[in-house]
Write a structure and sequence with these properties.
The complex is a heterodimer of chains A (789) and B (229).
Chain A lengths: L10 E2 L5 H6 L11 H4 L1 H13 L4 E3 L7 H4 L6 H16 L5 E6 L14 H18 L3 E7 L2 H14 L4 E5 L13 H11 L3 E5 L4 H14 L4 E5 L15 H8 L2 H4 L3 E4 L5 H11 L14 E4 L2 E4 L6 E5 L5 H8 L3 H14 L3 E4 L8 H15 L4 E4 L3 H10 L5 E6 L2 H14 L2 E5 L10 H17 L7 E4 L11 H16 L2 E5 L10 H15 L3 E4 L4 H13 L7 H7 L20 H6 L3 H11 L5 H21 L5 H25 L8 E6 L7 H11 L4 E4 L6 H10 L4 E5 L6 H13 L5 E5 L5 H6 L4 E2 L3 H12 L1
Parallel strand pairs in A: 1-8, 2-3, 3-4, 4-5, 5-6, 6-7, 7-8, 11-12, 11-18, 12-13, 13-14, 14-15, 15-16, 16-17, 17-18, 19-20, 19-21, 21-22, 22-23
Antiparallel strand pairs in A: 9-10
Helix pairs in contact in A: 3-5, 5-6, 6-7, 7-8, 8-9, 10-12, 14-15, 15-16, 16-17, 18-19, 19-20, 20-21, 24-26, 25-26, 26-27, 27-31, 28-29
Chain B lengths: L9 H7 L9 H17 L3 E11 L5 E3 L5 E2 L2 H6 L3 E10 L2 H13 L1 H30 L5 E6 L10 H8 L2 H5 L2 E2 L5 E2 L3 E9 L20 H4 L8
Antiparallel strand pairs in B: 1-2, 1-4, 2-3, 4-8, 5-8, 6-7
Helix pairs in contact in B: 1-5, 2-5, 4-5
The chains are: A alpha/beta (789), B alpha+beta (229).
Chain lengths: 789, 229
Amino acid sequence: MEKLNLKDQFLFLDGAMGTMLQAAGLKLGERPETLCLTAPKEIEEIHKKYLASGSQVIYTNTFGANAHKLEGTGYTVEEIISAAVGIGRRAVEGTSARVALDIGPIGELLEPLGTLSFEEAYEVFRQMVVAGEQAGADLVVFETMTDLYEVKAAVLAAKENSSLPVFVTMTFEKNGRTFTGCTVEAMACVLEGLGVDAVGINCSLGPSEIYPLAETLCASTRLPVIIKANAGLPDPVTGEYGISPEQFAQQLAPYYDLGVSILGGCCGTSPAYIQQITQTFAGRCPAKREYHPVSRICTPSQVVSIDGVRVIGERINPTGKKRFQQALREKDLGYILERGMEQVDAGADILDVNVGLPGVDEAQMMTDTVKALQSVISLPLQIDSSNPQVIEAGLRCYNGKAIVNSVNGDPEVLRTVLPIVKKYGAAVVGLTLDASGIPQTAQGRVEIAKRILQEALSYGIPKEDVFIDCLTLTVSAQQAQAKETLAAVEQVTKELGLHTVLGVSNISFGLPSRELITGSFLTQALYCGLDLPIINPNQKAIMDLVAAYKVLSCQDTDSAGFIQRFSQAQEAPASPAPSSVGSSMDIEQAIAKGLREETKRLTQELLQSHTELEIVNQFLIPALDKVGDRYERQEIFLPQLINAASASCEAFEVIKDSILQKGSSSVSKGKIIVATVKGDIHDIGKNIVKVILENYGYQVIDLGRDVPIEKVVNTAVSENVSLIGLSALMTTTLGSMRDTIAALRASGHPCKIFVGGAVLTPEYAQEIGADFYAKDAKRSVDIAKEVLG
Amino acid sequence: MESLCITINENEALKYLGYKGGEVPQDLIQQISWCQERIREIAAPRWVSRTFSLKRDPDGALFLEGTSFRLPGKDIQELLADCQECILMAATLGSQVEVFLRQTQITDMGKALVLDSCASCAIENICDQVEESLFKDWKPKGLFFTDRFSPGYGDMPISCQRDFCTLLDTQRRIGLCVSGSGIMIPRKSVTAVIGLCKNPPKKRFRGCEHCRLFRTCAYRKEGKTCGKA
């Protein structure tokens, strides 16, 4: 079959299937896809009506024909899809029209909001695409999508398991976002990178309401643009769609100037609407679109354009940080997330993620870290590794368009990493070094930059996605190199027209007053054109310099950002009450009142005269016991208990640091696993238990929420953990708790299990084989003391 | 319907936080009001509703006309005993509140706890407002509303949420899904049924948090209620 011409001519799609089925008498609550087997003639008739009205592509009746939605219908995905595509093929017989395998959302939200994993979603789509191609579909359409992560799983499934063209349309609200917060620009940015054939908007709104969104979309992508609008907005009472076929076509007419080239209808439309569209656009060619390439990276909700200085935060990196290394070894994602949130609050625009450490499975850790970070942070990430497997692991599960840090001029490196960058549509940092080392002159580095650019272009990576790192060398060791680096930054910016990245902090290593050298170098580099400095955003003085540079270079219009930075910010009331300066409070009072800073300071003071273990046993635990007693006597309630525990956490951080510095033995009283069981996502209770247990000196391995049974068992065995806490909040997930306990018992691993959660009772805990029922967080401490001492 | 402005019932939030009387710390009150502001800023409340005629089979089982769905349980039969029609509704605060809750759990667990409770109050408040707005349409027709009844109340299983969401097409219309294990996502969401009846239903018990004696009530301190609020 001839290749689809999406550039120079219009392509007309069909209109609504659901609306036509309802008109034919489909009952609410029944699965429309099963009609492909029970009423194939009627479906074929609908397709034929659309073809007669001018549709060149018909969508099969398979919107919800996925394994999840078909469960319980008695039909398999393959049965429905092969029947549906067969009907489509019969309908288009004798015409040049194409049959599109239509695929809608799975119907269950993906992680992190939901419990369906990215990998499971991929599998659901893979099954549909394979069945569709086998049955003879000409292309795959993913439509009415609201979650960009789900779309990514879908597109990867289609591209890795078929050779069919892929169209994607997502559904937006008037504010330009999907229900999950994805913007039009982010959709364009990610899908163009993933190599789909056309991208667009369908459903939710009528042509007039979609127009401004389509404008944004056309300006954000080189790809052909699809619009499949509803017949206006539904009447809030009757649910019927308002506008006539003529009005629909009239409202679509202005889309011509935008250069939209693929048109059809969604809810409420019928063949009459398609006929009006084809008449309106007949005999014309799509208007030419002008696209101005922009360097952009994104998450679904946040696009970062590199049209000024954008700070890359460097703190998620174990190099030279003992506490971070410990967190990696203990798979303590909570610690890493804190480092992430800290940098968000400090004003970073992008976060670098490096989790490489000998003895740690870096690819797995990268996947876990990326997933954890994107569950709470909406800034784009930079995947930092030299290992191609790790880079691919990070890019694959990343929800958005990331930066890869890095490749270099070594042909072998370029050959292995650039195809991965291209496949996942990422941007890439090229280091100006190669197998023979770092050139000592600016010119030598620029030459390597040119080579990297050429190679990237040859793989189809656009120029705007190539960033160059001219490499900072330590000025105390190679003083003359600072000037070369700056010169190289300037040349790459001006002569090659590329954005530059630079790890700035390294410049001052080994010198006193490091911040002064780092800051001066940063300012000069910015002046030379550096726009992606990799720095520690927690250093206020350094971030101040960036803010000042943005004013002087006209990037901060009217100095608004600068003024805001230096005016008194309205602070939210934090949990602990504000500390009264200069008070003679002791640590017990500080903890009782939940004063974090005070507790931290007092712990540092105590370390002058006491060992770490003494502080834990003589100060922290007695203080918490008192708070716990007051909680049990109902003199205080949960928020106050948690605030005290949070304050005590600060003390523990100081103690852990001190131990790592001295290399003295750990204060851990034993390991405890906590997990919210498979299927359940209510984790606030489990998190409370974790905070409290940590404050009694236990090392808590937090497996998170929706934890697979085998993960609990495997961790218990491999980490040799003898106390396990399970939490479930819903009656529907208690079964999963029972199964987890059964699996732990069946493994033969000796351990005690305590359970908690709103719907549990002591009787039920006993019935499902738990050793203890913890009615609250305080009780979990008593249990831990009993089991571990 | 005019846009919804969320108001958090302080007493209700305190109840969720396990408050059983005694002094309420001032900073907690401040936090609740801060949470209200943030939730107003971040939440994107959306709701859908649809009216169905009720059909009964001889043994009293309730069906929604035009669908294959049965409203299960004795409690709902009792509640809707005088009704010929009912309204199914679903409402959600949207997914951004969930993200903010997770962020807060990382930076400040105590605050996250308060925020979680306030978000629960917020979705209840949205439901109250939806109910009020719906009632404006029905009152002129001489009809009254029964209590709002949600899956998980009484003997109606929580698994019904899935059917409610399917019937109301909540995924497409308000972005509300049900997970494999029956949890609504976004979490701060509610589905409910309200009966339409010709006579005013019996006065109902709305809960202690709506009583002005909430903070000092002697019954509450013993974990009991007077049953009159």
